């Protein structure tokens, strides 16, 4: 290809103006309008269309000259899209041939002039291609005269990495000159630069692929990756945890009844003998009054029978029956009195009352032996963690863990596992987990009731096993091997 003829100053001014308009475009729609409509001031043509090869709508005619918006369903737009796909494939093949020729000769650079590239036997990279109906497949060439004039020019667009961004096709009755191709080739570089600014950013995966191209960088990266995968790390698991009382005293309901009053408040320190709660005594008081009345009646009947028995043998026989009834009434009265005395529950030892909201207990019916609250020693605490079944890493007694309280993000407490439940049970949150008990190692212990996350430390494993443990377990369950 020969060098283009002398370019006039006016043509250069128009070229500069179109380049500035392309760079100032705020979006792809504005840029497409500039490409297919305003390029007419530089190169005469009858029709022009811009075909997009990449996102957001890859493989679509994005702009057509003379139209505010292209209709994807229009027959002309559909035919034009098929033509552009064929022309793009030819541009990619020509570019690949040019690269191969440059690598073989090693005498040309990417900035070579088009005539030098042609002399080397390879098509110029990203250079416009003039064509007629004979240059298309027969199925597309049959409709050429229905849509286009005789001569067309395909101007490919590409980014710096050689990836296709699509292209612009122009059509007119006169053949295309070398000057037209040179001017549009220069504009194509400006359009490609502007389109690259609107293109989405490459993902980390795409950037990694570009970094790990064949060569020493790939080998070094793969070696570093393999080395990192075999580095031993402790197998850890996170589990919800709570600071609980160690060996607390369980305060239970002494008998069936309804809680009438709570004297202690949650987390309140109480002394030995202090009242904790009381049951409703209405029923027991009535039973005690009735038992007391029955006892008095039986006592009076026994006294009268004893007086008559002095003179009457028959009354002497009834005296034993009255005595038994009196003893029965006395036992009933004593039992009722002792039950009435148990209505008020006192603290058997000093500690902190641990229970839920008092409003949840006032007026609640309880059964004998039902737990109402705990009496805990604030200085004697332990850690209770719940390890989900899916996260179990063979936690055994003697292993270490670290508690990270939610209320103190900068604090951490070390502990050593004492017991691990052999059977998983549902937690209040509905998660099936193993209960783990641990004793704090340091002298400083967290307050009772603190909640947080426990990191349980297991055995040492390679990084690859640490990362793939859960996926492999899921795949194994799914495949059944």
Structure write-up:
This is Secretion protein HylD. It is found in: Cell envelope. The structure is a single chain. The protein has 481 residues and is an alpha+beta fold. The chain folds into 3 domains: 9-101 and 124-198, GAF domain (Beta-Lactamase); 249-374, no CATH class; 380-479, Efflux pump adaptor protein, beta barrel domain (Elongation Factor Tu (Ef-tu), domain 3), CATH 2.40.30. The protein is built from 12 helices and 20 strands. The protein has helices at 9-23, 28-37, 75-105, 114-119, 138-141, 144-147, 178-198, 204-211, 216-229, 282-308, 313-341, 463-479, and strands at residues 47-52, 60-64, 129-131, 151-158, 164-172, 232-245, 249-252, 257-262, 269-270, 275-279, 344-346, 351-354, 365-366, 371-376, 381-388, 400-405, 413-420, 425-426, 432-440, 451-462. The strands form 4 sheets. Strands 6-15-19-17-16-20 form a 6-stranded antiparallel barrel. A 5-stranded antiparallel beta sheet has the order 2-1-5-4-3, with helices on both faces. A 4-stranded antiparallel beta sheet has the order 7-14-12-9, with no helix packed on it. Helix 10 (282-308) packs antiparallel against helix 11 (313-341). The two termini are 67 Å apart. Residues 108-124 have low confidence and may be disordered.
């Amino acid at each position: 290809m020969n060098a283009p003829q002398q370019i006039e100053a006016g043509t250069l001014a128009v070229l500069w103006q179109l380049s500035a308009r392309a760079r100032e475009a705020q979006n792809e729609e504005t840029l497409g309008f500039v490409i297919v409509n305003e390029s007419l001031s530089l190169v005469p043509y009858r029709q022009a269309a811009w075909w997009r090869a990449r996102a957001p709508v890859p493989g679509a005619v994005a702009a057509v000259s003379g139209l505010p918006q292209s209709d994807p369903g229009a027959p002309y737009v559909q035919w034009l899209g098929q033509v552009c796909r064929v022309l793009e494939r030819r541009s990619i093949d020509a570019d690949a041939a040019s690269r191969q020729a440059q690598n073989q000769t090693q005498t040309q650079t990417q900035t070579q002039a088009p005539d030098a590239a042609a002399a080397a036997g390879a098509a110029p990279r990203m250079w416009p291609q003039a064509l007629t109906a004979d240059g298309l497949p027969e199925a597309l060439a049959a409709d050429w005269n229905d849509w286009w004039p005789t001569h067309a020019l395909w101007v490919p667009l590409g980014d710096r990495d050689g990836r296709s961004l699509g292209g612009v096709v122009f059509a007119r009755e006169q053949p295309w000159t070398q000057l037209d191709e040179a001017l549009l080739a220069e504009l194509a570089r400006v359009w490609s630069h502007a389109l690259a600014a609107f293109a989405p950013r490459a993902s980390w995966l795409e950037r990694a692929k570009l970094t790990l191209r064949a060569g020493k960088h790939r080998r070094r990266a793969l070696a570093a990756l393999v080395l990192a995968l075999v580095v031993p790390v402790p197998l850890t698991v996170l589990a919800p945890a709570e600071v609980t009382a160690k060996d607390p005293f369980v305060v239970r309901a002494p008998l069936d009844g309804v809680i009438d009053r709570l004297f202690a408040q949650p987390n309140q320190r109480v002394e030995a003998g202090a009242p904790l709660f009381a049951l409703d005594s209405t029923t027991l008081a009535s039973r005690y009054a009735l038992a007391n009345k029955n006892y008095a009646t039986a006592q009076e009947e026994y006294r009268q029978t004893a007086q008559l028995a002095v003179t009457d043998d028959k009354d002497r026989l009834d005296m034993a029956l009255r005595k038994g009834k009196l003893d029965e009434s006395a036992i009933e009265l004593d039992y009722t009195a002792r039950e009435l005395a148990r209505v008020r529950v006192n603290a058997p030892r000093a500690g902190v009352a641990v229970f839920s909201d008092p409003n949840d207990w006032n007026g609640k019916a309880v059964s004998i032996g039902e737990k109402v609250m705990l009496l805990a020693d604030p200085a004697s605490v332990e850690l209770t963690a719940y390890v989900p079944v899916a996260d179990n890493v063979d936690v055994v007694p003697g292993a270490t863990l670290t508690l990270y309280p939610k209320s103190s993000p900068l604090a951490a407490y070390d502990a050593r596992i004492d017991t691990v439940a052999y059977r998983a049970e549902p937690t209040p949150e509905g998660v099936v987990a193993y209960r783990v008990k641990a004793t704090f190692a340091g002298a400083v212990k967290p307050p009772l009731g603190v909640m947080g996350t426990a990191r349980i430390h297991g055995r040492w494993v390679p990084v690859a096993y640490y990362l793939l443990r859960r996926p492999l377990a899921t795949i194994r369950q799914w495949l059944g091997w």
